[in-house]
Amino acid sequence: MKLSAPLALLFLLCADGSGSAVSHPKPPCRYPPSQWCRSLEIAIECKVQKQCMEVNATRPNQAVPPVSVTLYYESLCPACRVFITQQLFPTWTMLQDIMAVTLVPYGNAKELPSPNSPFTCQHGEPECRGNLIEACIIHLTRHSSLQIIYCMESAADVLNAAKPEYSEENEDKAMSSLFNLVCQLYKVRTCLC
Fold it and tell me: Which of 31, 55, 158, 172 is the most exposed place for a label (fewest CB within 10 A)?
């Protein structure tokens, strides 16, 4: 198992009475600091096993790929909403360093043309609209899409929770005072989520 850590070592030079510099003795370790956490044996020999364990406990093992979770769902499906808000998002919040999430709206949609859409959704046209909004969010925001979709799915009204995402009015406000707009939208979202 390869363990590495960006440990910094500070060498102090002390002045003796004559003004010349004398270095402190080196630690009883034959490895450079960059390799101290490379293995447990090296960490023990260099007497830094506690520090190496602390550093490595906060970082995932890069040699192990993250767990992939793909969710096919519908935006207005009650069971999907419960799963996203009570299982998926809380788990991802705690384990996002070792978890890769892919969201696929339209999980139960059918390609049956209707008057307003090329899709027919299990919970009707509003769900197709919600699925379309969430698909656009996923496409445009990538890494932050799960937070936005969680906000929507945990709201009492999924479609209305999506409305503050974009408007020409917000674009104008952003151009004149982005700081004020961000604060205003933050207050709105804390009420919706």
Answer: 172
What's the burial of 142, exposed, middle or buried (CB within 10 Å: 0-12/13-18/19+)? exposed
62 lies in some domain: no
Same domain, 107 and 25: no
Read off φ and ψ for residue 112, nearest 5 degrees: -120, 105
- The set of long-range contacts for 158-161, using a CB threshold of 8 Å and a minimum separation of 24, is 158/75, 158/76, 158/81, 158/130, 159/126, 159/129, 159/130, 159/133, 160/192, 161/192, 161/193
Query: Do 142 and 77 fall within a single domain?
Result: yes
Q: What burial letters (b/e) apply to 53-76, b meaning 16+ CB within 10 Å?
A: eebbeeeeeeeeeeeeeebebbbb
Q: Which domain holds residue 38?
A: 13-57
Q: How confident is the model at residue 189 (pLDDT cuts 50, 70, 90)?
A: low
What percentage of the chain has pLDDT greater than the value 90? 16
Extended strands (E) in the chain: 13-15, 21-23, 67-73, 99-105
Tell me: do 25 and 98 sit in the same domain.
no
- Calpha distance 135→104 (Å, rounded): 7
Domain count, the chain: 2
CA separation for the pair 181, 174 (Å, rounded)? 6
Assess whether 79 and 41 both reside in one domain. Answer: no
